[in-house]
Design a protein that fits this description.
rod-shaped; 2 domains; mainly alpha
Length: 141
């Protein structure tokens, strides 16, 4: 089948052809069985598309698609167990991290040292404190 005739056939469905092109297409359709079959196939496809139910992307479309994907994937029981642990302990881990940061910040401000010892609240020990024999005898109240 000639490419030009096929293009004319496709164009005839979407736009009007000029009289010369229309005459050439009609003559080719009357002479070529293959071109007539092509026209019938295209016509039936267009009719099927017109009759088909139109669906739109309704709200939560992406959520429904992801849920269908998740439901189609087989998950081990062990994977499901670890996933539930992850979901359960995530808020606890975030809360603990925030508390550690708050406590470390408080300790740094009270000790006045921006160091690991200051963050942990360990008082600075001087050389005199190490060699002072009474330091071990002093008790905190």
């Amino acid at each position: 089948m000639d490419k030009k005739l096929r293009d004319l056939l496709y164009c005839s469905f979407d736009s009007d052809l000029n009289p010369e092109e229309k005459k050439m297409l009609e003559q080719a359709l009357s002479q070529t069985k293959e071109l007539r079959q092509e026209k019938e196939i295209i016509t039936s496809l267009r009719d099927d598309i017109k009759r088909s139910k139109t669906t739109s992307f309704q709200p939560y479309f992406a959520d429904r698609v992801m849920e269908n994907i998740r439901s189609s994937i087989q998950i081990d029981e062990s994977e499901q167990f670890f996933e539930s642990l992850f979901v359960f302990f995530r808020p606890i881990a975030i809360t603990a991290a925030i508390l550690i940061i708050i406590i470390a910040g408080y300790n740094i401000t009270t000790t006045g040292h921006f160091s690991i010892e200051g963050a942990l609240g360990i008082p600075e020990v001087t050389v005199n404190d190490v060699y002072d024999p009474t330091l071990a005898l002093v008790t905190e109240e």
